[in-house]
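For practice. Any example?
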Amino acid sequence: MPDIAPDTETHEEAGPLTDGFHLLIDALKLNEVENVYMVPGIPVTDLGRMMQSEGMRVLSFRHEQHAGYAAAIAGYLTKKPGVCLTVSAPGFLNGLTALAHATTNCYPMILMSGSSEREIIDLMQGDYEEMDQLAIAKPLCKAAFRINHAEDIGIGVARAIRAALSGRPGGVYLDIPGALLGQTMDAAAGEKSLVKVIDPAPAQLPGPNAVTRALNVLKNAERPLIILGKGAAYAQADDAIKALVEKSGMPYLPMSMAKGLLPDDHPQSAGAARSLVLKESDTVMLIGARLNWLLSHGKGKQWGSEPKKFIHIDIEPKEMDSNIEIAAPLVGDIGSCVHALLDGMGDDWAHPPASWVDAVKTKRDTNVERMAPKLQNNNVPMDYHGALGVLKGIVADRPDAILVNEGANTLDFARSIIDMHKPRKRLDVGTWGVMGIGMGQAIAAAVETDNPVLCIEGDSAFGFSGMEIETICRYKLPVCVVVFNNSGIYRGTDVNPSGGDDVATTVFVKDARYDKMMEAFGGLGFIATSPDELKRAVNEAMDAGRPALVNAVIDEQAGTESGRIGNLNPQSVVAQK
């Protein structure tokens, strides 16, 4: 046999390599994602460490649900997707509640979860924390993607960001198999694979005919009303919305998270005349608000017996006619729609009849005057009005502070009593009315805005996320938590109907010292039993700029069943034996 010539072909040395860890971090940083909210664990522990080493701020929580709530509200505050990173299976499921919450509330958020090997999952062979997470996430979010190859990380992150932000914002799930993070590829090729998302939420202009139709409906209105929802606050079209309200001369009603778009003491505010304007208005323009349960679906006794015409501004066409007929649908982003209406109004727009404006003003002023003595009481034990009257004054003195609020009575009373003076300063439970958002939202608000945070919690609501006060202390955040402590859910006076030894299902430990929990982690703890003590404690805490908790002792009998939505509690009609 002839000799075989030796292989003389030269091979170039392979270039430097990169891996899935670095590509994911670089893709996020390229798209200006700076903060990540997470709980470490398999398979993302090292990813969190490496994110931190690469200059990202990584905030480690005690529970994934609260990390998710933080990411969700971060998206609302910044108009960039908030990112939550969790472990697989149980951790993913914990974060999924927050992802669904973000989607329901139209907050841009990305939940990234590590996951098990696809081959083992698909054959159901029993991998560590085996779960088909992508399939589970899909019904509960706006979009869901899985990245299987390192070269697709750039495009996968880009798709998630665009899906979260475009059109109606929402939650997106991004599945990160553990094996993906360890995959390697040529570093130069990896860099080229990254994608910078361009214009993820382009302006969507309303049709000219739709604008004309809406203006014609407004011109014929005798008793018009504007309702501002949290979508209007998210849009950050503050100056244009203020100009539209003032140019129109119409009374406006802010939903709870839209409070402060215009100051609540603005002369056109109808917040203290809500019942009147909903019932007596003949034309209603919705800006970033939906006719869901929070507005009684646009019908029923709350809206009066006379038919109304609705103008609805929303970026989602399917939202129109969701409950009742919309006379003038205006589809587009809020900023573009509001500017189009302003342009169409011209310089000689006629204000509503004085009889309507005066009726709203009279009702509002009467209600404010009637409420004032209740808010100035110094009762011991405190009731909700006396305690919130004090906090109303503190918020007025500190308009840049962000107010986080949840509970039943604590939420319902606070949103009607505490005035807001600047936009996006009030954060609460949102569309679902879900409990447990408090500490997560407080943490994200402090991190994303660098502003102090006042978090007003019912004692039941605080129980959902109270352990995160350790997180607040660990990161030395300027958060003051006020727990309205009435020793129970709704109130602390219920009794076990069976006469047994167990306390009633709605009753907590009496005289609980939540302030000692904060002290245990190095924060400031206060107890307040009167409005005067509450005022001193909260001002001292806010001035300190340190983690603090004020245990505000409220009369056990002060609350009502389910706050102001007790009608949603079904009642048994079967007689007990």
Summary: The mean pLDDT is 95. The first strand starts at residue 17 and ends at 19. Residues 376-553 form a domain with the Rossmann fold fold (CATH 3.40.50.970).
